[in-house]
Structure formats: C-alpha cells, structure tokens
Design a protein that fits this description.
Layout: H1 5-15, H2 18-35, H3 42-49, H4 58-83, H5 93-103, H6 107-140, H7 145-161, H8 167-180, E1 184-185, E2 192-193, H9 207-225, H10 244-266, H11 271-286, H12 298-314, H13 316-322, H14 328-339, H15 348-351, H16 353-376, H17 378-381, H18 389-408, H19 412-429, H20 435-457, H21 469-499
InterPro entries: DUF112_TM
Keywords: Membrane, Transmembrane, Transmembrane helix
Domain DUF112: 21-439
Amino acid sequence: MGVDFNIVLEGLMTALQPINLFWVALGGFLGTVVGMLPGLGPATAIALLIPITFGMDPVSALVLMAAIYYGAMYGGSRSSILLNTPGDGSAIAATFDGYPMAQKGQAGQALAISAIASLIGGLVAIVGFILLAKPLASFALRFGPAEYFLLMIFTLSAIVALSKGAMIKGFISMTIGLLLTTMGIDLQSGVHRFTLGLPELSEGIDFLIVIIGIYAVGEVMFNYIGIDKIKTKSKEVGKIWITKEQWKRSKWPMIRSAPLGFLIGVLPGAGGAIASMLSYTTEKQLSKHPEEFGKGAVEGLAAPESANNAASVGAFIPLLTMGIPGSGTTAVILGAVVMLGIRPGPLLFENDPLLVWTFINSMFIGNIFLVIMNILMVGILVKVLDIPAKVLFPLILVLAFIGTYTLSYSTIDFTFLLIFGLLGLAMKLLDFPIAPLILAVIVGSDMEQNFRKSMVGSEGAFSVIFMSPITITLTLLTLLSLFYPLIVSWFKKRKIQKSL
C-alpha cells in the first residue's frame, strides 16, 4: 500500500483540531475510568457512550470511540496492579507481576511501567497499521476454523507450560475452565448442556463473572482470612518513576511484545487476552530470571501491557479494511460507525482517506495523551493502597457486584459470583495456577466451535487440522511450548554434570 504523505499530513492537522483533541482527551479519560471497574470493559463503555456520538461529525465520533477503547486498555491494568482485580480479560496478565510489585511497595513504578509499555505498544502498532494494514488483512483471511483452533490450543499450552513444577495442576485448572465453557445451549445442535434445568444457564456463564469472582471476590475472601493481621499503616508506594535498572530490564520485552500483540490483534476473534498471555509466556521463556516471574518481575508486567495495547490497535485493521470486527469491542464500534454513515471495507482507504488518516493520527496523539495523564494520576491512584483493608475490601465487593449486575441485569449472577469467589479462594489455598482456567474460559467456546466447524468442513477427517502451513507451524509451536521447559532443564542438568 503506497502512502500519500500529503493526505497523512492533512489527517494530522485534522486530528490536531481543538474539537478532535477534546474528544481524544475525553474518550481517553472516560475509557481509563471505566476500564478500572470490574466487568465494565471497553465494549460496555462504548455501548453506553454511543448516544454521545449522535449528530457528531463521523470523524470525531470514530476518534472518540477509539480513544475510549485504548483508554480502557490503560484503565484495566490500573485495578489489576493496585487491587489484583482486572477490568476485563485482556488485563489479567497485569495481575501476575503488577500486583506483587504493588505489594512490595513499588505500586508507583508498576503503574509507570504499565503506562510506558502501553505507549510503546500503541506506537509500534500504529506504525505497523500504517505500513501493513492491507497485507495483514489479506493474511488474516487465510485463518479458517482449523487455524483458529490451533492458535487457541497453542495459547493454552503456552500458559499451562508457565506452571513450572506444577504442570498437572495447570492442566487441571485449564480443564475446569474448558468444562465451564460447555455449559449452555449447544450452538450447533440446540441441545441444553449442563444447565441443571436453570433457564439462566441456557446461554452459559459470562467469562467476566468468572474473572470477577475468582480474582476480585476470591482475593477479598483470601485476605479476610487474615484481616486481623493486616496492619492499617500506610503502604509504601515507592517512586512514581522507574529506575534505570527497571528500564534496562523492561525495554526489550516492551519492544518485542508490541509486534506480537499487534499481529494477534489483527486476527478476528483473537483479542488482547490471548496477546497479553502469549507475550507473558514468551518473555518468561526468554528471561534469564524466570523464577522471578509471578513475584514482581518488571518484564512480566511490561510485556503483556505492551502487547495488550498493540492488540487494541491491530483490531482496527480487519474492522476498517474488511468491515470485520476483530473483537467484541470493535463489533460495537462497527455498529456505531455504520450508523454514522461510514462504510468500512477495502474501498475505505480510497474513498475516504482523510477519515482514515485522521483516525490513525488521533491514535498517535491519544496514546501520548494517555501516558501523560496516567503518569500524572499515579500519585492519586496509589492512594487506593492507603485505604484500610476493612474499608477497601467491601468497596471491591460492591464494585464486583455492580459490575456483575450490569452484564445481564440478573441477580442469579450474584450466586455464580460467590461460587467462583469460593473457587478462587480454594485455588489460592491449594496453590493452583489461576491463569490457565481464566484463559480456557475465555477461548474455550470459540475453540470448540472452530474445531467442530473444521470437522464438519472436512467430513470428519482430522487431517484437515494439519494440512496448511499455518496449522503445521502452530502445531510445532504448541509442542515447543510444552516441551521447552523440559528441554531447557535437561540441558542445564547436563551442563552441571559436565562441570562436575
């Protein structure tokens, strides 16, 4: 795709108009705030704010919705780091090392690393958007059901492989997650599966209820066990800027994870959760200090934050070039932009280049605005940690219940929330890894449907799964991710034996 720099410059000037800067700032702020609330992810935020765009100029409306989207990506990690409560699925990986950093008195630095990583991820992805939008859109079309099935298998295997020393527990955790996704009406046969006769379970259980229950409610229950031992004195928040050592350790993970997140984001249906999980597992495999992951490693926070934000930018490629939403959030945006008279598709770049380049330039501006805003807000946000536990925990529960209620406005979801809270508590007490369960809940349903579609298309021939170069590559990556820890361990033992 040739780039006309005159239209790029014209798009930049349009994006810098005061009214568009205002929408970028407002959307980024609202997205950050909503992203911090459990269950209220970017899709909900945009859906709630669509009425604001009525009567707006289409360019400004698209700029506003995009700012809400990547603002929510920033916001989701705030609650992950400070409260161990992710705003949505794509912010889960930020809890692995972000929350331990906050517990160690490095909350300010964790928030700063998160903001910088999100900025780098966003900017790298925007450059990728400019240069690779059309070729990547064509490549993404080569992904059929078999390719998506194996991509999800690869993601699950990578996250299970993280459970070093407890892979059996990791597999059990993943299996529980996959079983949960089988509840509800079978989309192909219409049969009710494991609904226990409850009509509320006919559509299955929303994965956000599982996330909120296990992380937010489970965390509160776990802390209540020893609440009398928790000191009420203020926790140290540390510096609000990163050290040279932290920058040195996190810069390459940020840079490496951005293209990975961007490419995952381009694939319709993959999304930020898979991108952040894959980047986390990749960095742990590459790290010289994998034993520090899960205990506050800066690389473990920087990598998924960069990938997460890059994926949010990549998700706009199938939306704008083919009219295919890459995630639930972009599906909401697609509905809104069509309502505004914009027709996403292959001809959008030719028919309305000013809109496209204004939008891309606004993402540049928005990411810079968000990192400045989030760093300025670090001092305010870390005050959350000063709230006494006996006040903070009830507040988290209130937010968890409100977030759950807004998903379907059904009080029975409160029961499920408590059940998953107890499950989260049990997993914490028994030292089961939670990430495989959460990821399985997120991708399980799509994985099953893609597998069954590939089987229907091939009339039951399993060979269809291993026939294309993409599926062969993904199969090899899956095997490598499962056996890589064993191979590394074998080489280390052999090296030690030789040195003796």
